[in-house]
Design a protein that fits this description.
With 421 residues, the protein is an alpha/beta fold. It is 43% helix and 10% strand. It has two domains: 129 residues, no CATH class; 204 residues, Rossmann fold (3-Layer(aba) Sandwich), CATH 3.40.50. The N terminus is likely disordered.
């Protein structure tokens, strides 16, 4: 019995490689899956490599309320622009000579120590400060400018404001869109301070009250060239944030006014204040996944399930008979032959024929159970007088590459077996 097992396991199957086409067919699904995953990863990296903020007046935002258009335009016109959400970076950069520090929004997030640090840096280097609609926070930076609270709440200013001042940049810009806040000098007759674009229109009148001295200069643009007090450096207040947004910068004279005010220095630092620790928090993996990718992934789930059902489908039970199933030998032979023919498994078919021939020859030569395939081949050569190399080729080593070669080897196999009496 051991001889039969030895022949079946070690006897005649060749070590020839599986055809490349068969390997590709079996690995086709995995190859397609790997390519799809690779493409998805590359697309995700490309889509998320330059993530932008959508916060209002943020320097990286391309939304309608962002200011990226303003920042990039200044860069295109030769201004060296530094953008940051980090206070230390902004504080250090604001000390560079010939610099303007722009705080576009959220000035209320700054502590008094932060403001004092900026003031000392700007004053020491004779640099400029620009604020976009800071509201009452303007008084934390300078005591020469305040919010004009003396405008009647029933007033309806004109949609377009005119300069009404001698500031060259405002005269060149002409009319701009009217905002919601007006600023004024904190004390009447403050020297070195210019006001432009005052509210005009039906119902606009000074009603007194508030912190503004009646009759003081007022407008939506305040240019203070510095004259002591808290701010011993130039301060510019742009009273309407729409002048700088992506949606509003190309309206009326907004672009001319904003760009001229922010390009008076060779270097512009845009500091966007954030909550404490907000800019230093480590983003999670989901923060780098775009919304379209998540929606696409959810849509792919049912598609993958359907694909798995198609690939794993079965057409009914394997056998309708009650077990155990009795299959006639001839059906087994025909079935295996059909499988071998369909898969072009010439090597497997030849292995089966060789195994049967060796078993029959071993029995005829009365070889014991300890005889292996080589012993049987030597016995065949001695019994038939044929060249041992030829017998080994027919019974063991020859590998057919075509159907005709397979038929020739089988013919030789049958012929040699018939010569053994």
């Amino acid at each position: 019995m051991s001889a039969l097992i030895d022949v079946a396991t070690r006897g005649t199957r060749s070590s020839a490689a599986v055809p490349l086409t068969a390997r590709l067919r079996s690995a086709g699904v995995w190859i397609v899956a790997a390519i799809a995953i690779l493409i998805t990863v590359i697309a995700t990296m490309l889509m998320t490599s330059d993530r932008e903020s959508e916060a209002p007046l943020h320097y990286d935002s391309t939304a309608r309320e962002g200011t990226k258009a303003m920042v990039e335009t200044l860069r295109d016109h030769g201004v060296e622009v530094t953008t940051t959400e980090d206070y230390e970076t902004a504080h250090k950069a604001s000390g560079k000579p010939d610099t303007t520090l722009l705080i576009p929004t959220k000035a209320d997030l700054l502590s008094q120590g932060d403001i004092d640090g900026f003031q000392s840096q700007l004053a020491a280097n004779d640099n400029r400060l620009a604020l976009i609609d800071p509201g009452h926070m303007v008084q934390e930076f300078t005591d020469r400018i305040t919010v004009d609270d003396s405008i009647s709440p029933l007033a309806t200013p004109d949609k377009i404001s005119r300069p009404h001042c001698e500031v060259p940049a405002a005269q060149a810009a002409g009319g701009v869109e009217t905002g919601e806040t007006e600023y004024a000098e904190a004390r009447k007759g403050t020297e070195g301070l210019s006001t432009c674009y005052p509210f005009t229109g039906p119902g606009v009148s000074q009603v007194g009250g508030g912190e503004v001295t009646p009759g003081s200069a007022h407008g939506q643009l305040i240019v203070d060239e510095g004259g002591g007090g808290k701010a011993d450096f130039p301060v510019t207040v742009l009273g309407n944030p729409d002048w700088a947004t992506n949606a509003g910068i190309d309206e009326e004279g907004n672009a001319s006014l904003v760009l001229s005010q922010l390009s008076q220095s060779d270097h512009l630092v845009v500091y966007y204040p954030t909550e404490s620790g907000e800019s230093e928090s480590t983003p999670s993996t989901l923060d780098y996944v775009p919304s379209w990718f998540i929606a696409g992934a959810l849509w792919l789930v049912p598609c993958v399930l359907i694909l798995l059902l198609i690939l794993g489908r079965r057409f009914g039970p394997l056998a309708v008979e009650r077990l155990p199933v009795i299959v006639p030998a001839v059906e087994t032979v025909h079935g295996r032959a059909a499988l071998a023919a369909r898969s072009h498994d010439r090597t497997g078919a030849l292995h089966t024929l060789r195994t049967g021939a060796l078993l029959r020859v071993a029995k005829r030569l009365a070889l014991g159970p300890e005889a292996g395939p080589r012993d049987i081949i030597v016995g065949i050569a001695n019994a038939t007088g044929r060249d041992p190399a030829q017998v080994d080729s027919v019974f063991s080593s020859a590998v057919p590459s075509t159907d005709s070669e397979l038929a020739n080897i089988v013919h030789q196999l049958t012929l040699i077996e018939s010569e053994i009496s």
